[in-house]
C-alpha cells in the first residue's frame, strides 16, 4: 500500500514540478505547483508526519499559492511567455549540466549516508497517531522546550516580513518621484 | 517495500528540477515557484531522515522551514510588485541594477 501511494504521489510531484518549469503561462505554473504541494503532503502522511501534512496544505496550497495567483492577477502578467528563445547563449545546456551534477551529487551523498541503499529499510513506526503520545504532541514537546527561542524568533520574523511587505508595496506618499507619479495610474 | 532511499532520490530529483528551472526561467514569479520546489525537496529529505533516525527534530526543522518560506514569499512578492510598478513586465534579465 505504501509503495502504491509513493509511486502515484511521486509521479504527481514530478509532473507538477515539470509543469512549473515548463509552463508558458504563470497561472498554469501556479496550478502545477498546487499539484506538487498536494502530492508532497500525501508523501508526508506516508512518512507519518501528520501535522506537517496538514500544515503543508494550509500554508502552501492554501496561502502561498493563493498569494502567487493574487500577485499574477494584480500585475496582469498572465500572458504567454515565449520559451523558444534562449536569453543567454548556451544557458540551457549549462543549466542541464548543472542540474545533472546536482542530481548526481545529491544522490551519491544521500545514498552514501548510513540509512541509504545499504540501510536496513524502514524502521518500525514510532510516530503512531493512534498512540496517546501522538505526532502533534511530540512536535509540540520539542518545539516548546528545546526550540522555544527559535519559535519566538519566527514570530519576530513573520512580523518583520509583513511590515517589510507593506512598506515595499505601498505607493510613494510624497510626490517627490516624478516617474512614479506620472507613470502610474 | 519503499525504503528511505526512494524518498531521498525523489527529493533529489525535485530539487534538481527546481534548480534548473531557477536557472532557465526569466519570469521572477516562476523563479520564486522554483525556489518553493527546492524548499519542498529539502523538507521531504528532513522528514525522511527524521523518520529513519527516529528523531522528531526533523519534523520540527521542517516547521521552521515552512515559516521562513512563508516570510520569504511575502517579501519576495512585495519586491516583485514594487518592481512591476516602476518597470512593468520586467524579466530577471532587465533587472541588472539594484536602483530602480
Write out key terms for the chains shown.
heterodimer, A: about 180 residues, mainly alpha, globular, disordered C terminus, B: about 100 residues, Helix Hairpins
Structure description:
The complex is a heterodimer of chains A (185) and B (100). Chain A is mainly α. Chain A is built from 7 helices and no strands. Chain A has helices at 2-22, 26-46, 50-75, 91-111, 135-143, 148-169, 178-183. In chain A, helix 2 runs antiparallel to helix 3. The N and C termini of chain A lie far apart (57 Å). By secondary structure, chain B is mainly α. Chain B has a single domain, classed as Helix Hairpins (Orthogonal Bundle). Chain B has 3 helices and no strands. Chain B has helices at residues 4-24, 28-52, 57-86. In chain B, helix 1 (4-24) packs antiparallel against helix 2 and helix 2 (28-52) packs antiparallel against helix 3 (57-86). The mean pLDDT of chain B is 87. Chains A and B meet through helix 1, helix 2, helix 3, helix 4 and helix 5 of A and helix 1, helix 2 and helix 3 of B.
